[in-house]
Amino acid sequence: MRCSETMIELKNDAREVALAETQAVLAHAPRADVEHLVDEIEAGAVDGGEELLESVLELGLHTGRIRARYGPGGEQAALATLRKLPRGRARTESAQSVSRALGALAGKHLNGVRIAAVAPGAFTVSIEADGLEASVRLDANGARLVSVAT
Question: H-helix or E-strand containing 8?
Answer without folding.
Answer: strand 8-9
